[in-house]
Amino acid sequence: MMKLTFVLLALLSRFSLLIIQFLANVVLPDHIPDVFNPPQDNDQIIACQSIGSRLTLLFISGLNRWDAIYFKHLMKYGYTYENSLAFFPLFPALSWLMSRTLLYPFQCFMCYDAVLLCSATVVNLIAFAIATVQLYQLTYNVLQHEDLAIRSSLLFCINPASIFMVAPYTESLFACLTFSAMNAIQQKKFLKGSMIIALCCLTRSNGVVLIGFLALRLLKTFNLLPYITNLLVFALWVSIYFIISLVPFIWFQYYAYSLYCTKTVQIDISKHLLSYGQERGYKMPIDDMSPWCYRTIPLSYSYVQNSHWQVGFLAYYQVKQIPNFLLALPMILLCVATAMTFKPCWRHCKHYMVDRMETSSDRMIPYLAHMVVLFLVAIPVIHIQVLTRLITPATPTIYWFAAVITNKKNSLHAYEQRGSSREQNSYKHAIMTWKYNPLMTDLKRWRQLTLMKRSIYIYFLGYAIVGTVAFANFFPWT
C-alpha cells in the first residue's frame, strides 16, 4: 500500500509540473537561443499539422527544450553528429522502444515527433515513480526511521531539478537506476547491484562513480582482516563486479570509435541533416577522423565535452559566469551542509571495515563518500549550474539532510532514532491522504517553522516552479 501511495504522489507531482510548463509555454513568449535544433523532414512537417499532433505538442512542447532536442534526435536518427556522443544511449533507446510498442497506436492520429516526445515523457513518469519508491525503501533500510524515509521521498518529489525529471532528460531514469542499485547493494545483492550500475553507466557518465560506492560496501561485507584468503576473495569478486559494471560504458565508447574512427559501423544520414550539419560545422561519420581517434585511450566523451562545450578543469571559472555560480550556490551549500551535519558518521570511518555491528552511521559512510567524491570532481570541471541536476538524481544524502532538518523532532540526530511502531503505523495511514502529508502540514504552519526549514522548502519548491517556467520558455536554467 505504501508503494502505491508513493507512486500516486510521484505522478501527482509530475502532472503538476506538466500543467505549469503548459501554462508558462502558452502565456509567456519563448526565448530563441542559438542551440542545436535540426530541421524536420518535409513529411514530418506535414504530419505534425494534424489535430492530434497540434493538441499534443501544444500541451507538452515546453518539454522539448535544450538537451531534450538532442535526445529526441537520438531516438529518431541515432548518432549522426559527433557532439551527440556526449549523450548516452539507454534513455533514447527506451523512449524509442516505447514509441514502437505501447505508444505505437498513437501514430494513427499524431506525427512521429509528437509520439517520441510522449514516449520520452512516459518513460520518465514511470522511472520517477519507481525512483520515489526506491528512495523510500533505501532510506528506511539505511536510517531505520519511518518519518525520515517518508519525508525524503516527498522532498524528492519537489526536488530543485524537477523539470529535468519530466522533460526528455536522463535524470529520472538515472535516479531510478541509482537508488535501485544502492538498494540492492545495501541488501548485499552485489551481482544485481553491479548489473544495475552497468545500466547507470549506459545512462550517464557519472554512473561510473557508483563503482566506488560498490567497492566500499564490498569492503564492509568481506570484513577485511590481515588474512591473505580474504584479500584474494575480495579482489576476485571486486574484479567480477567491476567488469560487469563497466562493460556497457566500454561498449558505447567502442561503438563511437567504430562509427567515427574506423568507420566499421555506418548509419544513414538524411539530406536535410547533412545540410544542417555542414551549415553548423558539426563533424559527421562521413567526415575525417577527429583528434580523439588518435589518442592512446580514445574516449569520445571527454573530447566532445571539451571541444563542444569547453568543459575542463577551471575552464568555467570566469567573471561572466558569476550568475551561474549564484544559481548553483544553494546546491553547493546543501552538499556542504549535508557533509557537515552528518559529521559524526565520518568518525566511524577508521572502524568501518572491522566493526561487525552496523550502526546508522556505519551504513551512511558509503553514501556520504559517494556524494563528496561526486561533488569534488564536479565543482572544478563542469558547467557549474549543471551541479543541481547532477546531484539531485545521483545521491539520497541531500534528501536525508533535508528530511532531518524538516523532521518534526527538529533534531540533527533524528536519523539515529528509530521511530516507534505507533508512529510508523500512524504515518502509514496519514500519508494516504494529501491533507495529512507531512510536507503539506509544514506548509500550513509556515509561520511556526524555523528559518532553516523555510529555506529548505523555498529552495526546493522555488527551483522546481521557477525552473519549470524558465525551461518551458527556453530560458537558461540549471
Beta-strand content estimate: under 5%
Mean pLDDT: 88
Tell me roughly what share of residues is in helical segments. 55-70%
Q: Tell me, what's the shape? A: globular
Low-confidence stretches: 417-423
**How many DSSP helices?**
21
What does it look like?
Helices cover 63% and strands 0% of the residues. The chain is mainly α and 478 residues long. Helix 3 packs parallel to helix 6 (112-143) and helix 9 (190-201) runs antiparallel to helix 10. It is built from 21 helices and no strands. The two termini are 35 Å apart. Mean pLDDT is 88; it is low at 417-423. It has helices at residues 2-27, 42-47, 51-60, 67-77, 90-100, 112-143, 146-157, 171-186, 190-201, 210-222, 228-260, 271-280, 300-309, 322-341, 343-346, 360-378, 387-391, 397-406, 421-430, 438-444, 451-472.
Would you spell out the secondary-structure blueprint of this structure?
Layout: H1 2-27, H2 42-47, H3 51-60, H4 67-77, H5 90-100, H6 112-143, H7 146-157, H8 171-186, H9 190-201, H10 210-222, H11 228-260, H12 271-280, H13 300-309, H14 322-341, H15 343-346, H16 360-378, H17 387-391, H18 397-406, H19 421-430, H20 438-444, H21 451-472
Helix pairs in contact: 1-6, 1-21, 3-6, 4-5, 5-6, 6-7, 6-8, 7-18, 8-9, 8-10, 9-10, 9-11, 10-11, 10-16, 14-16, 14-18
Structural features:
single chain, 478 residues, mainly alpha, 21 helices, globular
Give me a quick take on this structure.
The chain is an all-alpha fold and 478 residues long.
